[in-house]
Amino acid sequence: MEVQFAPLRPWDDFILGSARFAxxxxxxxxxxxxxxxxxxxxxxxxxxxxxVCIFVVIxxxxxxxxxxxxxxxxLIFMGSMWASxxxxxxxxxxxxxxxxxxxTILLMSYFFISIVGGVMVFLFGITLPLLLMFVHASLxxxxxxxxxxxxxxxxxxxxxxxxxxLNALGQEQESFSKFADMLAAQNKDK
Length: 190
Hints:
Elements: H1 11-14, H2 29-42, H3 44-61, H4 63-85, H5 87-96, H6 98-114, H7 116-139, H8 144-155, H9 161-168, H10 173-189
């Protein structure tokens, strides 16, 4: 099935005039999860636009830190992937060149500590949009269009990038319902 991008919803519907917001029922995890998933699917293009805008604003405020932070995050990720595949090579290098190994670790530590501010700016540029998406998706009440779009995605008539991402995270409604039932049973036993 071909991936379809959701249209950009009107900002009036997303956050302004006709938008309806309410605190979720924290005792009913299934209903809260369904609201969040529905809103993530329905407003995914709006969320992407918001995330890009926030990341760009933070990037303009601290361009060097965002570039260095991104580079460090990518290098650490690539280094951990390489190390997980080459554990024997690292052990061999450490035994053969212990001084060089220690100096390398110290230099990498100094480099990382000196740009921790950049890493924090980069991570803030990613986590702030995620936090805002979650808060909006939790507080925004669903409308009829939202529910119809969600059902189309659930049945498989339509696949969107957010739907694929949520499926990869295991956020199908049935699996979350089982988890919520398990929590309710544990609370009942106490």
